[in-house]
What does this fold into?
Amino acid sequence: MEYFADRDRLSRGEATVLDRVNGSLTRINEHQDLNAFLHVDSEGSRQRAAESDERFASGLPRPLEGMTLAVKDNISVVGQPMTCASAILKGFRPVYTATSVERLLDAGAIVLGKTNLDEFAMGSSNETSAFGPVLHPIDPLRVPGGSSGGSAVAVAADLCDVALGSETGGSVRQPAAFCGIYGLKPTYGRISRYGLTAFASSLDQIGVFSKTVADMRAVFDVVSGHDPFDSTSVVPPSPRQRTDGPLRIGILPPETLAPCDDSIRRAHDDVVEQFRRSGATIEVVTIPHADIWIPTYFILATAEASSNLARFDGIRYGLRVPEDEAEGDIITASRTAGFGKEVKRRIMLGTYVLSSGSYDAYYRKAQKARRLIADAYTSIYESVDFVVMPTTPTTAFLRGGITDPVTMWLSDYFTVSANIAGIPALSVPVGHDAQGLPIGMQIQGPMFSEELIFDLAERMAAQQ
Ligand code: GLN
It folds into this structure.
């Protein structure tokens, strides 16, 4: 089911939105074992579907009329709970709707429900959710990736047309690659963060999952744009035009690709070869300090997380351990009971790198490293149009297969630099490994080049 393939039929009255929505709800029900959804709004969805059918019948459908959408459960939607997959937010109901969701609703989309994630979007496997792991749609013994695993699976298993996720260091692209679909991390500031639960505000962006580039483009057109409620949201300077002449593709040097499995390396080389054959020039580019991408990300992300998550104190939101049961104060007892292990690890690490004795040694250094990485990208985009690289070093790994947190963090090796630099990147499905597990390559471009990235992804899809 691809939205734009069905839209013509909806316009001609050969299909109804209500049937499509009912079909999705049935599939969601049949695939409960995947644990992709934390909340499903069946009644609200059917009601909206009936309204969409009326709009089609009256010949006035909106741009995304009847498109089915799943929303990661760290993005607020009024009328539905929001847990961030954490026990500390159990029972919380947001009082306003995220701008991105509001815009999709205004364009006619239907929010089927809220999807599972790693607790507070911290993780790469969807195993840190307080409500159980999400299973990979092809092999239930494997992870779907994270942290937006539920949204990725909802799209990949055809439970909905498109989904929103969030990206701090790869949480849309990595699960998109593991599940064989498209996953976009936009330029920092292009999609409003209003209504997204903050993890690391200087890196966070809402991202999009889709099965086709056409669906991706349509959703991006609707959700992107300035929002007065988000002071970091921006008006793009002017639509970026491609320079004349052959396409210039940058690729990473072999030593930077060293952590990749053979299947990923082969897929990468095939994609590069295809570009070469279609007339593109290929240039090896060096984004310096590949060895510090991950440490830089984890110092910045945990520092910001330790501050952002201070608001979950058992007083203002969600879980509160009652005074007579609390050992010590309510705040400590509620946070101890409400947060999971990975979240606590991040808060402790973040508090440590911000403490007076470590600030200069870690946090300030990471800020400097961030500048170096961002500057390197700026100069790279003077000589190439895009940089193409694998989204992940491996395909989907086994659940429980990675127990050491640092090894888990390394699965974000290729994704974090785009968040550090604030540039857009799209993970594109390009094939499968010998076990039939999907492989994703990402196209990274300069700031505000999303539309050009979509053009390139469309060309790649046409060549496959
Ligand atoms: N996997 C990364 C982490 O654990 C990225 C998470 C994200 O992008 N939200 O922090």
Remarks:
- Residues 121-124, 147, 166-171, 199, 301, 412 surround glutamine (CB under 6 Å).
- The mean pLDDT is 95.
- The two ends are 19 Å apart (CA to CA).
- The domain at 3-223 is CATH 3.90.1300.10 (Amidase signature (AS) enzymes).
